[in-house]
Amino acid sequence: MKGSGTMETRPPMHALPAAVLRAEPTVWLNPHRRPSAAVLPGLALTEADLRDAEARWHRFAPLLARLFAGLADGRIDSALAPLAPDVAARVLGGAPGTVWVKADHDLPVTGCIKARGGVYEVLAYAERLAEEAGLLTDGASYAAFATGPFRDLFARHTVAVGSTGNLGFSVGVAARALGFAVEVHMSHDAKAWKKRRLRALGARVVEHAGDYGRAVSAARSAFRDRNDAHFVDDENSLALFLGYAAAARDLARQLGQAGIAVDAEHPLFVYLPCGVGGAPGGVAFGLKLLFGDAVRPVFVEPVAAPCMLVQLAAGLERPVSVYDVGLDNRTAADGLAVAGASMLVARTVGALVEAIVTVTDDALFAWVKDLWDRAGLRLEPSAAAGFAAVGPFVAEADGRDRTRATHVVWTTGGAHLPDAEFAAALARG
Ligand SMILES: Cc1ncc(COP(=O)(O)O)c(C=O)c1O
């Protein structure tokens, strides 16, 4: 359905603000949001699932430290750093508050948030295969996953994924490091350098004529009946979602270390760029489990591809794509160029999201340049989305005193951007 633009019935256009339909920047305060104490108990995923994901990351730390240079403690996490007051004031548009950057643009291994989900799902698959093959012995270090018998096993299996780029890269790096064959299905408009980089890893890259949604569904069908392969399903994967969710505990620890209170008196606004929804949804879910209503996740989407906004506004009964409401999904923010949101994510976090803000490509490029010039952050356009959203959101949200609010902008990718690509983005800013 996703991306096809065909619907049996028209989506409820009246539920969508006119500015969204005109592809103009909008702040959509989620009318469906409810207290987390009312929402979380009704979800299929629980805190036990989050703990399970954290434990898996922990088990695999010795392996990650062995496979990836610079990961001495085997943890895939990024810094939490304050923005200088003058830069924060620009971001806030003059409103009071402090702004921190959760620097996943510099996340180890692939320099993007998708590593949290993508690497995690590859590890979970490798663990399952090893267990089924009787290779896991009690108490043995998971560093053994990098040795002969494990690699022989993995070399007989394929990991496949459909991606706009960063998920494919993250899955590809992790799966190739373990010795898997890798196949990445990409839309024709995915960035050429991302395809080149995947091929250089030894991944097979399959290009599709349509958009990202078409690439994902083509890959899903190709791998449906393969028992020697695993398809990482960006739209439907619980493992991806939980891999992202585990980031919540890292952020909570960092906030504690920085002495930042998060409670009813000190709300925490977290700005998350949203494509299909897995990364922001997983992080939002994890944070809600830890902080309840004191945390307010704000998703950010391009004006041409506000798939989560359209889906949540239309209701959760059936999928609705941005094409269905006359938008074209054309954006330079390739990681966010998604026409249809994940229904799994929409149904899980639809009542937990505080707001969705849409931003223009021009604003993304302007912030890429501004944050480089003033704060030395090397961001790709998708990853600058949070900065473009803070000012409009704070201005719109309500008149309450927000002096005690903390704003965390999640920068989701960019450190691995080739120099020429980054220079071109700066030139457009
Ligand atoms: C840099 C960047 N930011 C944000 C996202 C959004 O993640 P998701 O598609 O899981 O919503 C992506 C997705 O590829 C991305 O590449």
Automatic annotation (TrEMBL):
GO terms for molecular function: D-serine ammonia-lyase activity; hydro-lyase activity; pyridoxal phosphate binding. SUPFAM superfamilies: Tryptophan synthase beta subunit-like PLP-dependent enzymes. The keyword DNA damage does not apply. Its EC number is 4.3.1.18. Keywords: Lyase, Pyridoxal phosphate. Its cofactor is pyridoxal 5'-phosphate. Belongs to the serine/threonine dehydratase family. DsdA subfamily. This is Probable D-serine dehydratase. It comes from Methylobacterium hispanicum. The gene is dsdA.
